[in-house]
Amino acid sequence: MRNTYTCTTLALLFMRGTAINDWVLQQTERLFTKCNGDPDNRIMLAYHMDDECLWMEFSHDFSRVFTDTASKQHAYRELASCMMVNKTINEYIAHFEHLLQKAGWDRMS
Q: How far apart are CA 33 and CA 40, in angstroms?
């Protein structure tokens, strides 16, 4: 999609749930105001509907609000207890490498 406004609106349309509904409504209102302004409150439009900054701000806001801040710590704990029980070697390696990436570690070549 070339229209960033439509792309962002579509992403918001698919986000549903009790934990996110208020945030979605707030983001939808902000998006509308950014592209249309609000003359009653003397707010000028900030972006055109095809401005890439709309998507960048939306994705930044989403990451800031819904990112698991303890994911690295969870990955460290899982790495410490990672075993090959009931797994093939390929499943174990894939799981181990996923945990390395999640923990922010690089696999040494």
A: 11
Number of H helices, E strands in the chain: 5, 0
Residue 1 has a pLDDT of 62
Phi first, then psi, for residue 88 (nearest 5°) are -80, 165
Packing angle, helices 71-80 and 89-103, rounded to 10: 140
Three-state DSSP class for residue 91:
helix
Q: What is the pLDDT of residue 109?
A: 45
Instruction: Concatenate the DSSP letters of all residues of 5-52 into one string.
Output: HHHHHHHHHH--STTTHHHHHHHHHHHHHHHH-BGGGTB-----TT-H
Give average pLDDT by consecutive 10-residue segment, the chain, 109 residues: 87 92 94 89 86 91 85 88 90 91 75
